[in-house]
Input
Amino acid sequence: MNELCRLTIHQAHELLKQKEISSVELTKSVLERIAAVESKVQACITITEDVALREAKKADSCIASGDITPLTGIPALIKDVLCTQGIRTTCGSKMLENFVPPYDAAVIEKLKTQRAVLLGKTNMDEFAMGSSTENSAFFPTHNPWSLSRVPGGSSGGSTAAVAADEAIYTLGSDTGGSIRQPAGFCNAVGLKPTYGRVSRFGLVAFASSLDQIGPISKDVTDCALVMNTIAGYDPRDSTSVPYPVPDYTQQLIPGLKGLRIGVPKEYFVKGMQNGVRTTLEMAIKKLEELGAEIDWEASLSSTKYALAVYYILAPSEASANLARYDGVKYGFSEQNASNAIEATEKTRQFGFGPEVKRRIMLGTYALSAGYYDAYYLKAQKVRTLIKQEFDQAFKKYDALVTPTSPTVAFKLGEKIEDPMQMYLSDVCTLPINIAGLPAISIPAGFAGDPSLSLRSRSGQDLPIGMQIIGKPFDEETILHIAFAYEQATDWHERKPLL
Amino acid sequence: MKLSYEQVKHIAWLGRLGLSEAEIEKLSLQLSDILENFEILKQIDTTDVPPATHSIPLQNVLREDEVAKSYSQSEILTNAPRQEESCFRVQTILE
Output
């Protein structure tokens, strides 16, 4: 019974369909796993055990009458940035510590239509701002592969949970790499869809032109199954595109003959760890073995501007999106003030953490009179150039492959005092959000703990992710490449010792 | 581009963000450090380049102005920090 939590969606679905296991048994197994490891991992902010078991029972009766889809009865955790009706949604912040949404996000509605079982909400960097989950107002999450290290961020709770089998799959959100980077650090599969592919209705907004919701799963097939459910047009999100959703599992085929893959050399940055470099080179050689045509000399010269562009655009949009937190209609509210403006100032002073304040300040400055042209407008223009360069590249290539991050998971506390150092851990993922492209991170190998000497390698090796970037709305090609690679390797089958 | 104490206070005022003296000091240094990294954008020529407001080819997404189901007053007031007579209660706005 205890091993049921280790299943993937497709494995569990088969067993449920054959009536060899029940959703209640599966859910209980996952809840037991959470109870066993949560004190070490700290992936969850809210666990809804009663709701989950009730939903599992309902799923079982549906299954009994033959009403079953791939996600039916399968337990999942949801990043706490997504609104779940009646269930506390904190965004990892004191500002929303006791906020209970009156509605479900669009993706949650879609999961419920499939009778998914929702286990609770996962930890994250506050308002999705961060790359380590250390910016959570509540507690940091620990990487199951090495508890003294970060899981990455901002979807650190969701990825750690999948790695530790605390959920069969989870949902995360990605604005600058927040699904992919932690997936890379935790040996999970994480996909950021094309901007506009998945409805943002009910996603607490950070940067409206960059945010996307995506699946975090144990393998590529599971990723495709979740995408089938969450993707699609929603009139309530005016940036949602009315394109039909293909069956993403149709392109999960082995062999990469005929595919042209570019490896942009700018992504192999100077500060990259040797273990990451060699692992990626081996992984790309494997893609070549599988039949893909690799161009090792691809180049995207605008890559070096992406960090500046992102750290102007995202905080600017965030400063607008977070203006709503004023203590009036919901959330933390400082009452000890002599007038409304002072109350707002104090609410924001005590409700927000340091990283959020930093970004609101950056964004406000970049948008303010006298600086708008030099910063925000300039960044928007460079954004056009970055997009154009990707468009040009996709005339020559079907996909681009890069490392997900220049390093393996770093130690808790290592980068928290130096904002720029923290921001640099996203250099490989940021450009993709700027251009609105789809990208997936998949397990590509492991590197020895860099802080241990070569002689005494006693700790567990740390995961390394490979990022595959696709053309707009071509999630099928990146899933195909990811699947073919996955089937030819077994990194995704390794589990952390907890 | 070092930000002065006054500049930091001004930005905080624009963002209605209360800051302690220690926070103003720290932010002045950190923001200046971050802003220096943006200088790289000056290297790139963007004359005649249009700003990218969106990465998807959608324009003027509209809907019909129709009356539809909404939320009850009590649902909306559920999270109200302070409420009175079915309104959100706030501190003095005008003297």
User: Anything to note?
Assistant: The mean pLDDT of chain B is 92.
